[in-house]
Write a structure and sequence with these properties.
Largest sheet: 2 strands, antiparallel
Structural class: alpha+beta
Order of helices and strands: EEEEHH
Number of strands: 4
Distance between the termini: 25 Å
Helix content: 10-25%
Strand order of the largest sheet: 1-2
Number of helices: 2
Radius of gyration: 17 Å
Shape: elongated
Length: about 70
């Protein structure tokens, strides 16, 4: 799907189609990798219980671990 960068006050922005099912107020992080922009949703409750994540990295494959890293 193609979108166009627009002027929004002193910033620039993109209007996202309603068909994506997004909700006003949802929060996303923006990552830039070269000329690619990636939006990832912010899940505040994801780390609500840190004990659930102890040892998590040790239980996933090396391939998954390497894929999961964003390089700046």
């Amino acid at each position: 799907m193609e979108v166009k960068i627009r002027q929004m006050g002193h910033d620039v922005g993109v209007v996202l189609p309603a068909a994506l099912g997004l909700t006003v107020g949802d929060r996303y992080e923006l990552h830039q990798m070269d000329d690619t922009l990636v939006l990832t949703s912010v899940h505040q409750e994801l780390f609500a219980n840190p004990a659930d994540w102890v040892g998590f990295r040790n239980r996933i494959s090396r391939e998954d671990w390497e894929w999961d890293r964003f390089e700046n």
